[in-house]
Amino acid sequence: MAKEKGLISPNDFAQLQKYMEYSTNKVSDVLKLFEDGEMAEYLQGDAIGYEGFQQFLKIYLEADNIPNHLSLALFQSFKMGHLEDTVENDVVCLSDVSCYFSLLEGGRPEDKLEFTFKLYDTDRNGILDSSEVDRLIIQMMRVAEYLDWDVSELRPILQEMMKEIDYDGSGSVSLAEWLRAGATTVPLLVLLGLEMTLKDNGQHLWRPKRFPRPVYCNLCESSIGLGKQGLSCNLCKYVVHDQCAMKALPCEVSTYAKSRKDIGIQSHVWVRGGCESGRCDRCQKKIRIYHSLVGLHCVWCHLEIHDDCLQAMGHECDCGLLRDHILPPSSIYPSVLASGQERKVSKTSQKTMDDLNLSTFEALRIDPVSNTHPLLVFVNPKSGGKQGERVLWKFQYLLNPRQVFNLLKDGPEAGLRFFRDVPGCRILVCGGDGTVGWILETIDKANLPVVPPVAVLPLGTGNDLARCLRWGGGYEGQNLGKILKDLEMSKVVHMDRWSVEVIPQQTEEKSDPVPFQIINNYFSIGVDASIAHRFHIMREKYPEKFNSRMKNKLWYFEFATSESIFSTCKKLEESLTVEICGKPLDLSNLSLEGIAVLNIPSMHGGSNLWGDTKRPHGDTHGINQALGATAKVITDPDILKTCVPDLSDKRLEVVGLEGAIEMGQIYTKLKNAGHRLAKCSEITFHTTKTLPMQIDGEPWMQTPCTLPCFEDLGTPGQSICPSHR
């Protein structure tokens, strides 16, 4: 379907996806309201007018203020084409609307196939005629085009699928036939959101990919075409046309050893093509890539060689440059093999073992290669837009896929259980500060025998912890192999972590929920928390307005400007008292609008509120080390000038802020720092009115309360810093 025939713009579609990301409703639930619920008054046969369509969007997207241009563009898009001959121009088919949104929302492909079929089976006889099936396929094509698929290739695949279903040529299709055909059409399943689960039975882990250079299909060996889309396997880089996926050879990657002979020694796994470097690692001569299928690459050590050089290569694979991080299949095996039980691997018993191993990680045992540090990777695929998803795919190829966990699907618990007894392992968290906090909190609860050190690959915005650990302010597509080498050479440093308890006073006012009980980065009260709270509320209400880093910064600037004008936290010292290690902190000579308590020297995406300190000559730890453990409280202004923030010194830095303008000056480097108030090991706040607060960037409004002293949690919060940056 051409874009000029009623498709909404790419920007509108991106905005729609943002709404759906924040919504928890399902199409099936909304449909019931229109069929026999409170929205039935808007139904005209199987159609709804514009007012009914707006109600559908309002309920489904859980948004009261959907931009009129978006709802109108969507409504117009459903009026196009086949509908003009069957319904009035001022109404759209409810089945088409429901089908379209059900294809976009999360869920199993099988469930989507069944739901969309039943939408058009109006007489409930389990049969669709050719015109109804065509309408269903049109909705699939529309979704595919919005997702940037090449529909010119998908259309013949679906047409071929229909020919195979319609054996007698009658043009009618049963539900069973539709489900059976759809479940074996790989491109369609990928479009519908095929769950990427490891089967270890030869199934590829497909993902759609558009190729910026000429690539050839591993099956038919013809060109996929420059800029065209095909399917690529995350495990072995096997590449095919969409229509060739059903006939593709089995995936040659096994993620664990299935017999005793495979334990301990890893063999090369060669796959034809995919030689991106263009040079043979054996003879150092060019691999002439006039045809993509020339040459071989190993999926574990990533060596690329000529076909003729294969005989000269040894059988054993050392996993290449990333061997320190990789758990090769030879290091992962079923527990039953380790127990000494004999097991004959017949077809039936092999299937039983596969089902067992893949349903629970406890059925597998890990025995890593000596002198290596296996890496456990957690990825939040929603962090950083589509960055998280791409990082997930890349790590599944660079490492053993069993080392890489999708946090939205599995959560962190499964990975921590799997790696519980792995000696020398490390953890890499790919996400923002919130994701890092989630992982650290889960590690606290997991009661691990040894707490692994944690590194961060920053995705999204903010990333204050990653900045102070020198991993940078955000991943921008750098080579992940190089980042893993940086991680290998890094050193482990301890990071203090602090607990906080909010004790509310007796009052009729109601507080927001406290987001965290653990402080990893910072706590603040007053002006900056007020800006963050307004930003948070607006983003929850209008998610489509916060879909890029630049927009987020502009909104933050607007709220900061408004706060500087109205000064909602003016004379903060009159509404709270502060105790450090049991002694009151004198704020009488200051006019503050905010107080920040820092565990790390980065806040709000890179602002250092404590400011730079000229280190004394000689000892790099300067005054911090000289003071020793006895100086739990430092309030002397002259000494504070020489104090250097340290995330492992068991002390917090306390900074006063005069207002939003001062915060902006610090962020833009026009001013060095806020007011250094203290450096201490315990702090308590007493507030007398409702004030905005935040922990690690998560704000809330808090009624009068007491926030008792922050206590160091000890060893659970370890982190990794690259030693050479």
Automatic annotation (TrEMBL):
Residues 203-251, 267-317 form the Phorbol-ester/DAG-type domain. It is an enzyme of class 2 (transferase). Keywords: Acetylation, ATP-binding, Calcium, Cytoplasm, Kinase, Lipid metabolism, Metal-binding, Nucleotide-binding, Repeat, Transferase, Zinc, Zinc-finger. Pathway: Lipid metabolism; glycerolipid metabolism; Glycerolipid metabolism. The keyword Phosphoprotein does not apply. Coiled coil: none annotated. Its EC number is 2.7.1.107. It holds the Pfam family DAGK_cat. It is found in: Cytoplasm, Cytosol. Residues 370-504 form the DAGKc domain. The keyword Metal-binding applies. SUPFAM superfamilies: Cysteine-rich domain, EF-hand, NAD kinase/diacylglycerol kinase-like. GO terms for cellular component: cytosol; plasma membrane. It catalyses: 1-octadecanoyl-2-(5Z,8Z,11Z,14Z-eicosatetraenoyl)-sn-glycerol + ATP = 1-octadecanoyl-2-(5Z,8Z,11Z,14Z-eicosatetraenoyl)-sn-glycero-3-phosphate + ADP + H(+); a 1,2-diacyl-sn-glycerol + ATP = a 1,2-diacyl-sn-glycero-3-phosphate + ADP + H(+); 1,2-didecanoyl-sn-glycerol + ATP = 1,2-didecanoyl-sn-glycero-3-phosphate + ADP + H(+); 1-O-hexadecyl-2-(5Z,8Z,11Z,14Z-eicosatetraenoyl)-sn-glycerol + ATP = 1-O-hexadecyl-2-(5Z,8Z,11Z,14Z-eicosatetraenoyl)-sn-glycero-3-phosphate + ADP + H(+). GO terms for molecular function: alkylglycerol kinase activity; ATP binding; ATP-dependent diacylglycerol kinase activity; calcium ion binding; zinc ion binding. InterPro entries: ATP-NAD_kinase_N, C1-like_sf, C1_DGKalpha_rpt2, DAG_kinase_typeI_N, DGK, DGK_typeI_N_sf, Diacylglycerol_kin_accessory, Diacylglycerol_kinase_cat_dom. Its main location: cytoplasm. Residues 108-143, 153-188 form the EF-hand domain. It comes from the Eukaryota. One of its GO terms (biological process) is phosphatidic acid biosynthetic process. Monomer. Diacylglycerol kinase that converts diacylglycerol/DAG into phosphatidic acid/phosphatidate/PA and regulates the respective levels of these two bioactive lipids. Thereby, acts as a central switch between the signaling pathways activated by these second messengers with different cellular targets and opposite effects in numerous biological processes. Also plays an important role in the biosynthesis of complex lipids. Can also phosphorylate 1-alkyl-2-acylglycerol in vitro as efficiently as diacylglycerol provided it contains an arachidonoyl group. Belongs to the eukaryotic diacylglycerol kinase family. This is Diacylglycerol kinase. It comes from Callorhinus ursinus.
